């Protein structure tokens, strides 16, 4: 990302879909997009396949994540950020069509 890149987000619950989907259903472009993740997002990840607790965020996939997944949870799962670290992560849109996003265990998250 260039030094003048616009950084989006700032919440553990921010998803690619919420940050970059336009009102007509298309996306702002494949990226790269910069998303700011606060520290402590590892405590909000719900790996049961649905958001069940207040403030919990969903995570769907492994290396390639569904657009409804928390960007910060995906960064922790992929090992880009440590669980209690904050930082800016780079997100790219995949044009791979998937009917399902299978999960896996990595970086202490299943």
Q: Explain this structure to me?
A:
The protein has 110 residues and is an alpha/beta fold. It is 11% helix and 19% strand. Strands 1-2-7 form a 3-stranded mixed sheet, covered by helices on one side. Strands 3-4 form a two-stranded parallel ribbon. Strands 5-6 form a two-stranded antiparallel sheet. The mean pLDDT is 77.
How is the topology of this model organized?
Blueprint: E1 7-9, H1 16-20, E2 33-37, E3 45-46, E4 57-58, E5 61-62, E6 64-65, H2 71-77, E7 87-91
Parallel strand pairs: 1-2, 3-4
Antiparallel strand pairs: 2-7, 5-6
Termini separation comes to 30 Å
Q: Low-confidence parts, pLDDT < 50 over ≥5 residues?
A: none
Structural shape:
globular
Strand order of the largest sheet: 1-2-7
Helix count from the secondary structure assignment: 2
Summing up helix and strand content along with how strands pair, one would put the structural category as alpha/beta
Major sheet attributes:
3 strands, mixed
Cα-atom radius of gyration: 13 Å
Order of helices and strands: EHEEEEEHE
Share of helix among residues?
10-25%
Strand content: 15-25%
């Amino acid at each position: 990302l260039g030094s003048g890149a616009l950084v989006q987000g700032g919440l553990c619950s921010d998803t690619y879909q919420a940050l970059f989907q336009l009102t007509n259903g298309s996306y702002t472009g494949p990226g790269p997009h910069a998303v700011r993740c606060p520290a402590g997002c590892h405590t909000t990840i719900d790996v049961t396949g649905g958001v069940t607790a207040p403030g919990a965020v969903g995570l769907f996939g492994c290396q390639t994540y569904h657009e409804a997944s928390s960007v910060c949870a995906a960064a922790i799962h992929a090992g880009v950020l440590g669980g209690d670290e904050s930082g800016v992560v780079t997100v790219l849109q995949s044009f791979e069509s998937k009917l399902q996003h299978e999960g896996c265990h990595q970086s202490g998250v299943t």
